[in-house]
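**Reference record**
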Amino acid sequence: MSITQPRAYHLTKAVIHLDHLTHNLRLLQAQVGQVPLWPVLKANAYGHGAELIAAHLVRLGYTTVRVRDRHASLLLHFEWIVTTPGLPRGSITGSALS
């Protein structure tokens, strides 16, 4: 006897609107003032590609992005080295962009 997953999970769709993310981060930043925020990217940005979301955060001026573990950090680090011209090697260390 085999157990199969229902196919309903294929119907789930999440959309990350970068303009909404930007708006929400600006609201949070306004609440905390000059205290630096460290956005957290969980589960590959919930399947949307952590490198895409991290790149957007860097364009917004964030210098640190937290991830869950070293594996996620290394994936972002590799992506950054390969696809981001001018970003110094080692600028993503441990579990953060810096």
Notes: The chain has four helices and four strands. Residues 7-97 form a domain with the TIM Barrel fold (CATH 3.20.20.10).
